[in-house]
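Review this chain:
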Amino acid sequence: MQAWIEPRHGSESKMNCLQQGRCRQFLWKGGVWLEMRKTRKQQSRLKMATTPPTTASAKQAAVTAKAERIVQRVKDHHAMGLEANTEQIKNGTTTEELAVKKGLDSGALRRFKLFAKSYSAEQLVEFCMLRRLNRLPLHWGYLPYLLTIKNPVKRTEMAANAATNGWSPTRLHAEIRKLEGRPPGHGRRVELPKNPTDAIQQIVREGNLWLARAKKFVVGLAPNKPASKTRRGDNKLDLSELTALLETVSSEIGRLRKQLGPERVSAKVRRKRRQHGKTSG
């Protein structure tokens, strides 16, 4: 029984075409050439044969390379902060002028300068040696929150806790607020548009966004698994804060509804309530 291979690209060899799975195979049977159709099992075998296996050493090399890139970026930001501080002391150059000169955002350059002032060379080396549970160092996203801690000892402790417990930057921010006794939130003043109509639209838009985010998270939780883990798999979920927030929202909704009064409820809402009452009755 004879067989031959027809490459789809005439410039490449038959063997390379076969390995890449871009060829047509024919079989001489019954006096004619019949094209061989690969089954799914054959296709998967071909893919496994042509795909180089990912070894443990290759994974380790990838993790090491990524860790080096993260550390180098942190060191680069520290060096830029040192340069900006030196330039300001020698020539009196402002942050905005130096940011324009370097092509950087002025806010980012201020953080670089604060980073250079807060971390000495020894502290920088100690920070870069920390490793998270995924064997990667703390990246730059952690530092803006760590720099809000004035005490260097507490700052070092929080960085070590973030690495040991596998905290994300958001979790680190929340833990810092707890440590300093600050209430949860962004810390900004709540301001509404002066136009009441615009204020209502803003409240409705942000409320719908929050509700959609909360629904997506709660529905995504695995049922019958109260000790389910986060996507990174290193922290058990603590739903106490979310439960407390939902209780606060429920009580505040009732209070705000009383303040609005029945005369301020729209006809559309009253119609929905009547329909709901008839349906439930």
